[in-house]
Amino acid sequence: MFESMMMNTNPxxxxxxxxxxxxxxxxxxxxxxxxxxxxxxxxxxxxxxxEHLMDYLSENIEQLPDVLxxxxxxxxxxxxxxxxxxxxxxKLNDMPVxxxxxxxxxxxxxxxxxxxxxxxxxxxxxxxxPGDFAKLKQVIHDELVMMxxxxxxxQN
Length: 156
Hints:
- The chain is 45% helix and 21% strand.
- The chain is built from five helices and six strands, in the order E-E-H-E-H-E-H-E-H-E-H.
- The protein has a six-stranded mixed β-sheet, sandwiched between helices.
- The N and C termini lie far apart (35 Å).
- 27% of the residues are buried.
């Protein structure tokens, strides 16, 4: 089960294709809303859990997203499991993945070690879901600017 939508598209600019995997309907709503308010051309596709994510990727192997925002804590298949499968698949291995999660614990050392493991597994970024909408827009914007710059460099 997935849903696609166009965001802030400008015909002169090739939009970033963004895939967002999160089981929480509110998180998907706020991510989409934030993306609409960010001045970056994008197409958004959402999936509701890890199994749907992996199905979507296998069905769209020739048309992968420019970036995947992947929730860590999902039913049926966690973000950790999905990241591991993505990095083990040669056809998916180059796809940028930004982990997206609430903080697991108030233990800063635990969280830092978890983030370190995610980067070692191949994640390119980590976003802690902020409680404030303006901060959400800013962290998504910052990650997309980095992805857009990488995409532009790779196209030249």
